[in-house]
Structures are given as C-alpha cells and as structure tokens.
Amino acid sequence: MSEISLEQMCHSARVIVTCGTGGVGKTSIAASLGVIAARAGRRVVVITIDPAKRLADAIGLTESLGNEPEQVQISASGEMWVSMLDVRETFDNLVRSAAPTPERATEMMENSFYRSLSRSLSGTRDYMAAERLYELYNDERFDLVIVDTPPSRNALDFLESPERLARFLKHPIVRVLIAPGRGGLRFASAAITPVLKAISSVVGSDALAGVASFLRAFDGMEKEFTQRALAVARTLRSDDTRFVVVTAPSPDALREADHFVSELSRLKIDLKYVVANRMPPRIGDTSSTDQMNFARNATGDVAAAHTILAGLLVDAERAEAGIDEFIARTRVKFPPAHLTAVTEFPTDIHSIESISELAEQLAAPSSAK
Q: Is 99 domain-assigned?
C-alpha cells in the first residue's frame, strides 16, 4: 500500500469532514488539520456543527464563535479561520438568496412557523450544516473547509439531508400546499382537508395559520431550494471532499468507529483516512514480556522499575492490538484506508499552541502506517 499522509490530504482537498464519537479528541484533530493546511500556505476555515463550544475551548478562545469565521493567529504562511454553525443565520441567508424579492424574504423570515423551524428541528440543523459547508466551499476567502461533526451516532445525517430536502420538495402534496394561489387546493381540498385538520388538532389553529402563511411565502422558492440542495449533495460526494474517522483505543470508541465506517459504506462515501488518537506512548523498543523477564532477574528498585515499565507497555500493546483489529475491519470495506496514530497528551488541549503540537504529530511520517 502506497503511503498517503494526512499532510498530503491537507494540501489538496477542498473539504475535509471529521467524524467520531465523543471523547476521542475529534475537535482537536479537526483544528490540527487546519494548522497543517495553513502551514502549507492554504487559507482554511474550520467549522464546527456541534452545538457545544468544544472548538473555541480547544483553541483557547474566550469568546463564543459564530457563523462568521474568525481568524486565528498562528505562525504559518497561510491562514486559519474558525466558525460555529448558527442555524438561524444560515437559514436566513438561504431565504434571502432564494426569495424572488427582498419583501418576500422578509415576509418568510418574520413568519412564526419559520422562526420555530429555524430554531428547533434537528432535521433543520442537519440541512443547514450542509448548506453552511456549501457557502464556505464557495467563499473565495478559503481554499479548504474542515467540518467538525457532533459526537453522535447521527452525526452523518447532514450528509443525507440535501437529498431528503430535494425529495420532500418534489412530493406532490408539498407542491399542492405551497401553491394555493395556482389552484392546487381547489382541486385537492378533499384530500388535503383531513390532513390539515389532523395537524390543527395537534399544533392548534394559530400554529396552523402560521404554517399556511409560511407556505404561501415559500411559493415560487421551492425550485431554488431544490437546486441548491442538489448542489450541496454533489459537493459532499465530490472527489475534492475527504472523510476522516477519528477514534481512540478504548472498546467503546472502537465500537462507535465501526458504526461510522459502516455508515460511510452505506452512503457509498469513500474513506481513506483514520486517526487513532490518544494512544498510550510506546516506551523503548522492548515488549512487556521482555520487561517482566528483566524484573525477575533484578532486585529492589531496578526490579520495581522494570515491573512498572512492563505495565505501561501492556497498556500500549493492548491499545495497538485494538487499533490494528479495527483498521483490519475497516480495510475490508475500504482497502485504501490509511491509519495515522498520535499519542495522548499529558494535559488537556486548550490552546492553539497545544493544537500546533498535535498537528506536528499528525504530520510526522512516523505516525502513519
């Protein structure tokens, strides 16, 4: 297998999506990839679509991040920016771009149902994450977009959300609902009325009125939304987009990593890069068995030292065995999958300096196999 490094990926990709369960350092890895790219002279933006503020914490920002990227001061020939998804602002921007007139955009954004939709539904967050990625992808300020996904089994739902939205907008019932002025409801009222009554009984007549006015405001915008959704979907599956599964040597983390690998396989998305983070350090060239033999042949403090070293090596060997088994399973689905391993830091990562140290490990040839 030819060696393909994460550093090479950071030099050439247009989009990098990191995924993994909680507690594996995924956000730190995403930020470190940003540092690698910036050092290569690229203009990179790292966006987190996780509602938690882990990215700001990881790079030591005291103020919360927002939709508009904020530049991080690092020693590099390129630039590194960071951002945090704001669902409402992203939705508003999409409405402004799709609306036929500014007045129609205002009408839609002031609608009560729209305000609820843009704040609360998880499906809305999924699509807006994909939409924001697409916006940044087409932003001339940046050469590379790195996406930090939430630590959830459903973190990859945003990959399917553009197609789901496109299918939804093409559904005949939706077309009837969003075009009452074109005569749709006059012909379909017998079929639609029971549906509207059922919705009204659950959400109330006031909320239903909000839905109706939202749909009237949306009339004529569905084509633009559909085309945009399909363009986002193409970007996520383009040859310029790379996916990185981040894991750690614990059984729970490896089990969740298997889930992400299976999801990418189901979605027919290629996986070429795996990062094994928080690995115990490998001390010396001997094995735990060697150190136990040394301990048996020594006495006092020397024997105690060899015993302690043997215990540390047992931890490292177990971690390596777990990762080796995981990458073997992964390569059944993705034969080119490339593994990069980095050791656990003695303290939490909470500054751009520690992120830069992690980036050096990720970029080191010795970390890859």
A: no
Q: In angstroms, rounded to a whole number, what is the distance separating the alpha carbons of residues 276 and 246?
A: 6
Instruction: Give DSSP secondary structure letters for 32-72.
Output: HHHHHHHHTT-EEEEEE--SS-HHHHHTT-SSPP-SS-EEE
Q: Coil, strand, or helix at residue 104?
A: helix
Collapsed DSSP state (helix, strand, coil) of residue 219 = coil
CATH number where 271 lies:
3.40.50.300
Taking the CA atoms of residue 366, residue 273, residue 246 and residue 61 in that order, the dihedral angle to the nearest 10 degrees is 80
Domain that residue 38 falls in: 6-88+123-159+232-285+317-367
Per-residue pLDDT of 169-216, as tens digits, reads 666 655 655 555 444 444 344 545 555 555 555 445 555 556 666 666
Distance CA 206, CA 142 (A): 44
Please check whether residue 227 lies inside any domain of the structure.
no
Take residue 363 and report the two structure tokens written for it.
Answer: 């970029």
The pLDDT tens digits for 139-174 are 999 999 999 998 777 788 888 887 777 776 666 655
Task: Give the total number of structural domains in the chain.
Answer: 1
Query: Comparing C-alpha atoms, which of 171, 202, 167, 197 is closest to residue 184?
Result: 171
